[in-house]
Amino acid sequence: MTSQAPERLFLLDTNVLMHDPGALFRFQEHDIYLPMVVLEELDSAKKGLSEVSRNVRQVSRFLDQIIGDADTALISKGLRLNNVTHTNGGPKPNGSLFLQTQLMADHLPETLPGKNADNSILGTTLSLQKEFPDKVITLVSKDINLRIKARILGIHTEDYYNDKVLDDADLLYTGINTLPADFWDANSNNLSSWQKNKTTFYKLEDRPVNDCYPHQCLHTMGEDPFEALVDHMDVGSTTLKIATNYRTGHNSIWGINARNLEQNFAINLLMDPDVELVTLLGAAGTGKTLLALAAGLQQTLETKHYREIIITRVTVPVGEDIGFLPGTEEEKMAPWMGALLDNLEVLTNHEEHNEWGRAATSDLLNKRIKIRSLNFMRGRTFLNRYIIVDEAQNLTSKQMKTLISRVGPDSKMICLGNIAQIDTPYLTETTSGLTFVVDRSKVWEYSGHVTLRRGERSRLADFASDHL
Predict the structure, then answer these.
(1) Residue 3 falls within a domain, yes or no?
(2) 15 and 145 share a domain?
(3) Among the listed ranges 133-142, 374-383, 452-461, which one has the minimum average pLDDT value?
């Protein structure tokens, strides 16, 4: 006879609900507890147009539905969570919500003086441990420092894992795979090829690699390299398309050539109108922004495939905030767009070599490139636009969904970022919205991804990345 596991009670920190309003319904059969200080913090954060404020207001609506017309006696016994209809996905929870209805004794040691919110949450957790010794009381928080203090006090604590896309960032899909050495010999009997619009296609009666995805980049090693992309996948066959070589001068895009294998595959995805969503990951100096801008200019000004370029990014400062800024939306966004403007300068210098020509090109670019703030994306629809989302690693999965769902017909979205440089609080490599999009979109037939690994900025930048 096996002993029954002890009941669990999860006490939620404010930042968990601010991060994911649906956290109230994510704990399956377990009960959850909200201290009064959490409700106070939610109330103080409900005003504004930020994503956090919207999440807080959604939490308040959920709590209002859960409580309904219950009196204090019923609230103290726990409110069933499965009585509320919500749209957060997953199975219905079978636990109850407990709200703090009475003042609890303060069991905090003298080493934690003061009455700040974190210490109040710790004191409530210690009181619950004494009140329910037969239950496992777990404090769930995105705040690392609070979890450290909780462990010092002997409190069982956990991070909020529901938003975690992968167990390890190293498992993230790279978009590039090496074909086996015997690829041609193994497929010589079930291989057919043809040409269409000067592009060669190969059809295999199998998968070229075990984990095969649409628009995956495949290549062989050796003196005669073979570079191709997965063009189409049927039930019993796979069609490969030979990658265009953008390393040579006559195949440049807006004066830019690929400098390595990953950049060449990235340009192929950026220039393919059938690929509606492209994600590019890579460290600083790998060429993400330059390639995305060059491909956008080529398809907007030369081939006229898109009407204009929309550029946006999340406004998270690396150092001290510079405060409120005067001017129009584009003027307010200008300080955050330094990297993009630097790359535009490189591209315009490639196009024209005299002062008059550069001025004319800059004037044309100002009319065809629009800089937009993420704060005003809700409700918009982008038709026939080439959209670049820079520093996308600082966005949550919900923000990424909001952005991508704005894309209308005949548009293309490019998401750029480096998940090793996340500036948004409570986001990590495994919970970033960019990681979420890369992992979820890899199976979609109209998306492509490349992880750029080799820096091409300068010898000095490469030395700094490797040795400093």
Answers:
(1) no
(2) yes
(3) 374-383
> Is residue 165 in a domain?
no
Into how many domains does the chain fold? Answer: 2
Q: What is the mean predicted confidence (pLDDT) over 328-356?
A: 57
Domain stops at, among 158, 180, 211? 158
Structure tokens at 382: 């982008």
- Model pTM score: 0.80
Q: Give the total residue count for the chain.
A: 468
Element (H, E) at 103: none
Q: What does the pLDDT look like over 193-240, one tens digit per residue?
A: 999 988 999 999 888 988 999 999 999 987 778 999 999 998 889 999
Contacts of 107 (CB under 8 A, 6+ apart): 123, 126, 127, 130
Interstrand relation of 176-178 and 217-219 (parallel, antiparallel or unpaired): parallel
- By the 8 A CB rule, do 127 and 146 touch? no
What confidence tens digit (pLDDT) does each residue in 238-271 have? 999 999 999 987 888 888 899 999 999 999 999 9
- Same structural domain, 126 and 202: no
- Joined together, the tokens standing for residue 452 give 């750029």
According to DSSP, the β-strands at 8-12 and 31-34 are parallel
Whichever domain contains 102, its CATH number is 3.40.50.1010
Q: What are phi and psi of 411, to 5 degrees?
A: -115, 165
The Cα–Cα gap between 460 and 256 comes to: 21
CB 273 within 8 A of CB 448: no
pLDDT at res. 182: 83
* Phi, psi dihedrals of residue 124, rounded to the nearest 5°: -65, -40
> Does any domain span residue 2?
no
Contacts of 386 (CB under 8 A, 6+ apart): 296, 299, 300, 306, 308, 309, 310, 411, 412, 414
Which of 110, 136, 158 lies at the terminal end of a domain, its last residue?
Answer: 158
* Three-class SS state of 109: coil
Dig out the tokens for 311 from the structure: 């550029």
The arithmetic mean of pLDDT across residues 55-64, rounded, is 91
| Whether residue 454 is found in the same domain as residue 328 | yes
C-alpha distances in angstroms, 17 versus 312, 387, 422?
Answer: 27, 31, 20
Residues 313, 336 contacting (CB under 8 angstroms): yes
Domain housing 365: 170-467
Residues 317 and 425 in one domain: yes
Q: Is residue 164 part of a domain?
A: no
What is the distance between the alpha carbons of residues 142 and 383, in angstroms, rounded to a whole number? 38
